[in-house]
Write a structure and sequence with these properties.
Shape: globular
Number of domains: 2
Number of strands: 15
CATH topology of the largest domain: Rossmann fold
Number of helices: 14
Radius of gyration: 21 Å
Amino acid sequence: MIIGAPKEIKDHEYRVSLLPFGVELLVKAGHQVIVQSRAGEGSGATDDEYARAGAKVVKTAKEAFAADLIIKVKEPQPVEYPMLRPGQVIFTYFHFAASRDLTVAMLESKIVAIAYETIALDNGTLPLLTPMSEVAGRMAVHQGAKFLEEPLMGRGILLAGVPGVEPAKVVIIGGGIVGTNAAKMAAGLGADVTILDISLPRLRYLDDIMPPNVKTMMSNPWNIRRMVKEADLLIGAVLVTGDKAPILVTEEMVRTMKKGAVIVDVAVDQGGCIETTRPTTHSDPTYIVHDVVHYCVANMPGALARTSTYALCNATFPYLLELANKGYKQAARDNRAIARGLNIVEGRIVFREIAQLFGLPYVELQKVLG
């Protein structure tokens, strides 16, 4: 099979979808790999390294997109749509729930869309979302701490406080991978941290493993309303696999927040869990609503590409190799995790939540696979 790795073009997206070690293993397995020139530059991988590993390094995105299977980091951008063709497999983060326009465009292109974020093991874990959730959760605290600085319109509060001055209050909605990693970072800096989640078993687990400056609380409108009002830094860390994130913090709640408080909504990739959330970019990361700073960058880990790329490629490569070796149909028949990653197949939505969200026709995956 011919595998293509184009250069990412989303705003300040420095990650790359395939590293030289992956190229070497794919070529050894009998496949051809096309890598666009400078695709790995932001992650520290040079064209020479790709070439030595056995890749054909090409100048243009069009040449890279000529492959049978395209591996990317972020969803195809509008300027890339004309390069897609029916039956072509695109393996990347799609986050369809955040964009009807993207969903319709991919349906019209008749590609096979395999989404990293919905590949799921039988126990419910999301192996290709987890590494980036770890990065984003930790990064959320970095960004929150930075934008609490007064020159950046924040409250002028140090997360840790100092002797004689209380630390900042960090409130995290969602106790999954993002929330847990955010709590670790905030707690390590000495902040006063509260995690809210709807699962009592999860809260018990977090209560056991977290240090004393992390408290747990059942997530319900009453508790969210109260904690949002107290927060200096509010982190949205809610995920519903493949579906739009539920709005748990209303605009009315945001109105009650302290002037200069900061919101980091990591759920923005799936539409956001805070009503005042809208996607931003690394070039223009924040905006202010009701005197509250909002940081809602939709590709947060892209700014930390050397860490993020290696973490991502370590996770994605085994699935990529299986797709290349077997083709997507046989791989999906053999591996239920890959089957769950199929969202759109040649003009048909095969992931129920996306069809329901946008009121579009749904087709059972088994009918498509045969």
